[in-house]
Amino acid sequence: MEGDSVPRNLRHGPPITLTCDCGERRQLRYGERWTCESCGKTWNTNRIPAEQYGAIRATQIRYRRIPAALSVLALGCIVAFVIAGKAFGGLIMVALLATTWTMFFRPFYRRRYRRALADLPTWKIKPE
Ligand SMILES: [Zn+2]
Fold this sequence. Notes:
With 128 residues, the chain is mainly alpha-helical. The chain has two domains: 8-47, no CATH class; 57-118, no CATH class. Helices cover 52% and strands 11% of the residues. A hairpin with a 5-residue loop joins β1 (16-19) and β2. The protein is elongated and about 65 Å long. Residues 20-22, 24, 36, 38-39, 41 line the site of zinc ion.
């Protein structure tokens, strides 16, 4: 199977955009191979240095931590309100939080995330 040799922490990283010498483009996962349909060259994303791709993966994980933490917080709020016997109040509270996040913070957050990833390196790899 493909990707067996890929380190576990790199398996679910952001997609890699590979541009073939002939101009064909494809989005690949780290460790994936791709044979270009137009010119037949085979590319292997394993040629990207793992530690460099690891830096991208680390950025992605860092930026995912906040939304994940907020979800846990929201869940904690619901549980706390349910225990206090005020489930309805808890739901309103969480709905309010979720709306605030979606409308105000998420667009801002996404922009920062995209900028952080855009700063990362591009690689030149050789076909197989
Ligand atoms: Zn090609």
